[in-house]
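Sanity check

After download, print the first record. It should look like this:
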Amino acid sequence: MLVGNEVNVVYDRRKLCMIDPLLVYLAVLIFGINVIPAFMPPTWVVLAFFYASFRLPLLPTVVIGALAATSGRIVLAYIARHHFRPLLSKETRENYNTLGEFFHTHHHITLPLLLLYAFFPLPSNQVYIIAGLANADIKIIAISFLFGRLISYTFWVTTAHHFSRRLSDLFGSYLTGGAIIGELVGFAVIFALGFVNWRKVFRRLLSEKIF
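Expected structure tokens:
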């Protein structure tokens, strides 16, 4: 028979083993947001909303958010690779391939840039779509972003004081004219990258010893 402190210890252990349904819902929501290629609110805003509104613990919220977001982006990259890429012309695929080759052979440049990018609350959908189109190493990109997002999410979630009170308002606020234009510009950039002869560009840059 358990009494006193022993009962409290058992209760605390059971409590630790329980998974908050809100965290499960949050993980599914974040995963879905990051699979969808555009017109979704930033992950850190959703995490800040759940953290403040439902008083979720910070560490599980950030870790689950970063893992779910990264998993969703990996799926997005594979969708771009296996469903969008076959629709491109041979020349366009070769241009994207050159970008992927540059990423593989110049990690001393690309990885610091990825980490720096991941530290800021900037959208990553275009990065993963380009990675998929360019046949880049998704694992390296995902690990870099996961590390960066763990740090940036912790900072932005704990310092975010202004957020919507309802989840519907949260999504609606990111379907404004400015946000839509920003997304369309991002996709225009992705589209334009496929028309650049990157092999010629990089050859010239290397000959001038810029890299």
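If your output differs, re-run the checksum step. Summary of this record's structure: The chain has a mean pLDDT of 85.
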